[in-house]
């Protein structure tokens, strides 16, 4: 077994599940312990759906307590980044480092909330498949959609495993989440911001604004990837993570 370098906690995106981090298990080969919590009701779980990111952060804190983890590096992709920032709001001292991948700090705009309402309606009438169909063109870059059918199939399979109640709960939590922008200046731990070059949901300009607002942040752009950069270009994503983690590992 490799020497233990530290622990990395990774929260997953919407409407996927913890299995989206499978390509990142390769980081275990460099001694990192990788923990990927499952958000409620995703991947066929029967837990009560997500109520709010505040509640989720409280649950995550209790989960960290249960594991008696000593200051892990905590991060997530997109919705997983919202969870990360909410956890930071509650418990900043728990972070040895932070990873914010393809995510943003601000709350939903009125326009985005309208989109969420439309998504709730699509879910009601067409089920999770309708939500997935509407999201895939924005989750993945055009190149991935055209040339990497296995990645498209994987993303669909992961998303379709989510229970409709879980998807509805997550949409409601997403549209009512707090603005975390005021927290950014308080993030003192080393932070890696990652973005897919073709991310249209949280574009590179949003990532650059995060890097600028967080005192000790660096930015890695993943070429030829869209929003789900860890799945679209896993090797480049892992290389970026390792460059960051190597600076932090004891
Ligand atoms: C995600 O990938 O988690 C979602 O796109 C987040 C969002 O819709 O705000």
Describe this structure in words.
- This protein is an alpha/beta fold and 250 residues long.
- It has a single domain, classed as Alpha/Beta hydrolase fold, catalytic domain (Rossmann fold).
- Helices cover 46% and strands 13% of the residues.
- Strand 5, helix 7 and strand 6 form a beta-alpha-beta unit.
- It is globular.
- The site of D-malate has 7 residues, from loops.
Defining key terms:
single chain; 250 residues; alpha/beta; 6-stranded parallel beta sheet; 9 helices; 46% helix; binds D-malate
Describe this structure in a few short sentences:
By secondary structure, the chain is an alpha/beta fold.
Q: Structural class from helices and strands? A: alpha/beta
Ligand kinds: D-malate
Provide the low-confidence segments as ranges: none
Fraction of residues in β-strands: 5-15%
Tell the overall outline: globular
The largest sheet, given as strand count, sense and whether it forms a barrel, is: 6 strands, parallel
Number of domains: 1
Strand order of the largest sheet: 2-1-3-4-5-6
What is the highest CATH level, the class? Alpha Beta
Individual helix count: 9
CATH topology: Rossmann fold
The first-to-last residue Cα distance is 16 Å
Q: What is the number of strand segments?
A: 6
């Amino acid at each position: 077994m490799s020497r233990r370098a530290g622990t990395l906690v990774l929260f997953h995106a919407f409407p996927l599940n913890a299995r989206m981090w499978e390509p990142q298990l390769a980081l275990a080969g460099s001694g990192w312990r990788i923990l990927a919590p499952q958000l409620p009701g995703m991947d066929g779980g029967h837990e009560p759906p997500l109520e709010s990111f505040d509640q989720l952060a409280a649950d995550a804190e209790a989960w960290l307590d249960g594991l008696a983890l000593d200051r892990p590096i905590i991060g997530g992709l997109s919705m997983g980044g919202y969870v990360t920032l909410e956890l930071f709001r509650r418990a900043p001292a728990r972070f040895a480092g932070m990873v914010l991948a393809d995510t943003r700090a601000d709350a939903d705009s009125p326009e985005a909330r309208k989109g969420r309402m439309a998504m709730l309606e699509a879910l009601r009438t067409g089920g999770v498949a309708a939500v997935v169909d509407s999201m895939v063109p924005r989750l993945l870059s055009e190149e991935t959609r055209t040339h990497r059918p296995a990645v498209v199939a994987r993303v669909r399979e992961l998303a379709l495993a989510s229970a409709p109640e879980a998807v509805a709960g997550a949409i409601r939590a997403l549209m009512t989440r707090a603005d975390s922008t005021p927290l950014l200046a308080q993030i003192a731990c080393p932070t890696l911001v990652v973005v897919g070059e073709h991310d249209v949901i949280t574009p590179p300009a949003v990532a650059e604004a995060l890097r600028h607002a967080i005192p000790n942040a660096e930015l890695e752009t993943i070429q030829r990837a869209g929003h789900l950069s860890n799945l679209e270009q896993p090797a480049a994503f892992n290389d970026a993570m390792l460059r960051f983690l190597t600076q932090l590992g004891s």
